[in-house]
Amino acid sequence: MKAGFLPVVGALVIVATSAAVLWWPPLHERIFGPPLAASQVLLTGNVEAHESILSFSNVQGTIDKLSFDEGRKVNAGTVLATIDDRLYRRQLQIDLAALDVARQQLKVARGNLAAQGSAVVSDRADLAEKRLDLARARGQLAVGAMAQQAVDQTATTEAVSAAALARDQALLRVAGDNVGLASANVRSALERVALDRLTVRYATLRAPVAGVLAVREAEVGELAGPGVAIYTLDDLDHVWIRAYLNEQDLGRVRLGQSAQVRTDSAPGHVWRGRVAFISPQAEFTPKTVQTRAERVTQVYRLRIDVANPGHELLPGMPAEVTLELRPTG
Q: Distance (Å, rounded) from C-alpha 251 to C-alpha 153?
C-alpha cells in the first residue's frame, strides 16, 4: 500500500503505512477519558460551594480594620474585620462599676440581716426573762407578798418585751427581703456585664468556618452593621456538583454511590465523589442543562459531593459526572 494520510473521519486520525496503522484517540477522550460504557450515564452540571455572607451581628460602627483581601484562605476563628468598639467598651466599664455597687449593697444587706437576726435572739431571751418575772410576781401576789401595782408594772414590762420581739422579727423579714433584692440586683448586673462582653466580641468579625474569601464587600471607614456584607466566604474543602438525571435512568442510580468528576480545566484528572442527594420531585429540564442523550421533559436534581482539598474545583465551574447505572430487571 502506498504510504500516505487518509481523510479525517469524525474525530479519528489514521495514518496508514505499509508497516503499521497508527491511531490517535479523539481529543475529548484524551481529556475526559474513554467513551461511556452502556452501563454508564454522563451528567453535566456546575460546581457549587457553601457560601457565607459575613457581616457584623447586633452592633454598628465604623470599620477600622479589614485583615485580608479577596482570595485569601482563612481558618475558622480567624479575625477578618473589626469596628470601632469604644462605645461598647465604655458601656462595659459602666456596668462593671454598677456590678461593684450591687455587690456592696448585697454585702450591706447581709450585714443588716445578721444584725436583725441577733436582735431577734436577744429579744427572745429578754421576753423569756420578763415572762418569768411576771410569773413570779403573780405567785407573790397570790400569797400577799407583792402589791397589785408591782405586778401590773411587771406585766407591762413583759408586754413591751414582746412588742420589741415582734418589731425585730418584722425587721428581720424586711432584712431578708432586702438581701433577696440585692442578690437579684447582682444577678441583673452580672447579666448586663455578660451582654456587654458579648457585644464587644460582636465588634470583631471572625471566620465561622475555614474557607476562601471570595469577595471583599466593604472598605475601612465605612459604616458596618447587621445585614451589611463585609466578606463572602466560600468553603472550598467540600464542594458539590448540581446535576440533573433523566427520568428513565432514575431507578438505576442509588443514594451514596460513587461518581467520577471531570472538568476541562484539568484534562485527565478525575475527582471521586458520591451521590449525596436525589430530589424526590421531578422538575422541568433547566435550559442550561446539556446532555449527550436526548433531552426529556422531566428530570431529577442530583447533588454529588466531592472532596476538594486542593481547591482545584471552584464555584461556577462546569463539570461532567460519570455514574454507573444498576442493571435493569
A: 107
Task: Kindly indicate the confidence band of residue 197, based on its pLDDT and cuts at 50, 70 and 90.
Answer: very high
pLDDT at 1 (0 to 100): 42
Residue range 285-296: mean pLDDT, rounded: 53
Boundary-marking domain end, from 157, 182, 202: 202
**Model pTM score:** 0.65
- Rounded Cα distance, 277 and 286, in Å: 18
Contact predicate 321/259, CB 8 Å: yes
Residue 21 belongs to a domain = yes
Strand pairing class (204-206; 271-278): unpaired
Residue 2 belongs to a domain: yes
Domain that holds residue 133: 87-202
Which of 164, 179, 202 is the endpoint of a domain?
Answer: 202
Q: How many Å apart are CA 206 and CA 57, to the nearest integer?
A: 11
Q: Which residues contact 56 (CB under 8 A, 6 or more apart)?
A: 81, 83, 202, 203, 205, 224, 225, 226, 228, 230
Give the number of domains in the chain.
2
